[in-house]
Specification:
The complex is a heterodimer.
Chain A (H helix, E strand, L loop, with lengths): L5 E4 L14 E3 L4 E5 L6 H9 L11 E4 L6 H5 L6 E4 L11 H11 L6 H11 L15 H16 L3 E5 L8 H8 L6 E5 L3 H5 L3 E6 L2 E7 L2 H25 L6
Parallel strand pairs in A: 3-7, 3-8, 5-6, 6-7
Antiparallel strand pairs in A: 1-2, 1-4, 8-9
Helix pairs in contact in A: 3-4, 4-5
Chain B lengths: L2 E6 L6 H8 L6 E7 L14 E5 L5 H18 L4 E5 L14 E8 L10 H4 L3 E5 L6 H14 L4 E4 L8 H16 L28 H14 L13 H9 L15
Parallel strand pairs in B: 1-4, 1-5, 2-3, 2-4, 5-6, 6-7
Helix pairs in contact in B: 1-5
Classes of the chains: A alpha/beta, B alpha/beta.
């Protein structure tokens, strides 16, 4: 299926009040961020998008893919790979090695064995390298997240990627965003508290009390501010790395 | 008669949490929990008509089957349109679903390997996967694949027992299945295995007989008897007949389906 776009149709907030917009259209190549306080409902919106909800979720939103409602059974089948979701959860529970897991996933999705390629990409994102024979639950939070991202990019190869607060993962967020952008026609939706990720998006969806309360297109002024924030970030990362390496600051 | 919805699944998989969320959408519903020695699960449910039954010495799935009609009568007395029965879910050999019920298996995304669960997955209509929110999408793919390996036609719904996400979808799926289930007979979908071995009769000795030989023999014979309960052998059920055969009191060839090697 070729991606033509995603449409969000309004539902209701936690108080049951209707969301105040007609529709939100997201086109291939766009980056959208979802911002709001912790517990405001960002993850629910991501889940609605992931499951292409049909007005049947708690929010009552409808999410259309290429202008159409997709039935639940299609979306929930393991063959449906249009949407990749890098969730906040950092752990694996199934007792398998990294290689077995990735190759099993390849098999389900009808792809050739590609565990080496996935591991190689994951290792570009994480500090301590992952190897094929490591057991999944041995992985650290950052390693798990890196592996999930590499799996979504290579095995699932989804044209729509959802990412839930990737800035918290112990991996380099800007590098991840660049990897997501490696396919130009991809839709990227980021739930985030991070100013760099939020301002890197074409527009941001603001969530309050479970509902979409505003849509803000990134202004020219904000794009200038983004450059400033990025330079702060470089300085900040230098200090962070020095501490990590056991050095003294200043 | 109330429309029956049966929930099964291993202990701790989140059956009560799923029911707690899904039950809110029913206008008129009763709830029966069957457990073995103890259960306070009904306290979690905010509905008027609810009760707990303890099976004690009887296999809880058999106990549920024996009292199912009682439960339905109780629902009729209370005039509830639907009845949810939650089973204890201990033994992977049985499955408590009746043909006229909507059968929901609750499985935990971080728990038992689905392929170990047998008839409660193989004979259900819907699998509700709980705790999916703490694993990655790739691991979810693998779980769904394993469920499909056991039951290809089943409908899989992810339900978050804490926040309730997915419970409305589950409700809608249940309600959609009810009309076709009403036409089905009030019978179990799966023939439950019953007391064939001597331990089921109270034997405690462990050294008195050649057990391995006994087990091999029972399994060999049981495999050849199709559990149709046709009655052609003169016994009411295949298990009655099988017990006699195992004891050497009956000739297996009395079963019209039985074939020698």
């Amino acid at each position: 299926m070729k991606l033509e776009g995603l449409t969000i149709l309004p539902g209701k907030n936690k108080k049951g009040e209707p969301e105040n917009f007609d529709k939100i259209e997201i086109k291939p190549g766009q980056i959208v961020s979802i911002v709001g306080k912790t517990g405001s409902g960002k993850s629910q919106l991501l889940y609605d998008i992931e499951t292409l909800s049909r007005g049947d979720s708690i929010s009552g939103r409808k999410i259309l893919l290429n202008g159409k409602t997709i039935d639940r059974k299609t979306v929930f089948s393991s063959e449906f790979t249009m949407i990749g979701h890098v969730s906040q959860n950092l752990k694996f529970f199934v007792d398998m090695t990294v290689g077995e897991f990735i190759n099993y996933h390849c098999e389900i999705l009808g792809k050739g064995r590609c565990s080496m390629e996935v591991i190689e990409l994951a290792n570009k994102l994480t500090g301590e390298p992952i190897s094929e024979d490591m057991r999944l639950h041995q992985l650290s939070g950052g390693q798990s997240r890196a592996l999930m991202i590499a799996d979504i990019l290579i095995v699932r190869d989804s044209p729509i990627i959802l990412a839930d607060e990737i800035e918290n993962a112990g991996i380099e967020k800007v590098k991840v965003l660049d990897l997501f952008r490696s396919r130009k026609d991809r839709i990227i939706i980021l739930s985030t508290h991070d100013p760099i990720l939020a301002l890197s998006s074409d527009f941001r969806i603001v969530i309050k009390e479970g509902g979409i309360s505003n849509i803000i297109y990134t202004t020219e002024k904000e794009k200038e501010i983004l450059e400033k924030v990025k330079s702060y970030e470089i300085e900040y990362m230098e200090i962070k790395n020095k501490i990590r390496n056991g050095e003294i600051i200043g | 008669m109330a429309d029956l919805i049966i929930f099964a699944g291993v202990p701790g998989s989140g059956k009560t949490s799923v029911i707690k969320n899904v039950i809110k959408y029913f206008n008129s519903v009763g709830y029966v929990k069957v457990d073995v020695f103890f259960s306070e699960d009904e306290k979690q449910l905010d509905i008027e008509h609810k009760k707990t039954e303890l099976a004690k010495d009887i296999c809880p799935d058999h106990y549920t089957a024996m009292l199912m009609e009682d439960f339905l009568n109780w629902a009729d007395i209370n005039k509830t349109e639907h009845l949810i029965v939650e089973t204890a879910g201990l033994c992977f050999r049985c499955s408590p679903y009746t043909k006229n019920s909507v059968a929901v298996a609750v499985v935990d995304a971080i728990g038992t390997d689905i392929r170990k669960l047998g008839p409660i997955i193989k004979y259900c209509d819907i699998v509700a996967v709980t705790k999916y929110d703490i694993i990655s999408q790739s691991e979810r793919d693998i779980i769904k694949h394993k469920i499909k390996m056991v039951n290809d036609s089943v409908d899989i719904i992810e339900v978050n027992g804490i926040t309730g996400e997915g419970s409305y979808e589950l409700y809608k799926e249940i309600v959609q299945l009810i009309p076709e289930k009403r036409k089905e007979p009030f019978e179990l979908r799966f023939v439950p295995p019953s007391a064939i071995c001597e331990f089921c009769y109270g034997m405690v000795g462990l050294e008195k007989q050649k057990r391995r030989e006994f087990i091999t023999n029972v399994l060999k014979i049981a495999k050849k008897i199709p559990k149709l309960n046709c009655g052609a052998c003169g016994y009411k059920t295949c298990n009655d007949f099988l017990r006699k055969v195992v004891k050497g009191e009956e000739d297996p060839k009395r079963c019209i389906f039985y074939k020698e090697d």
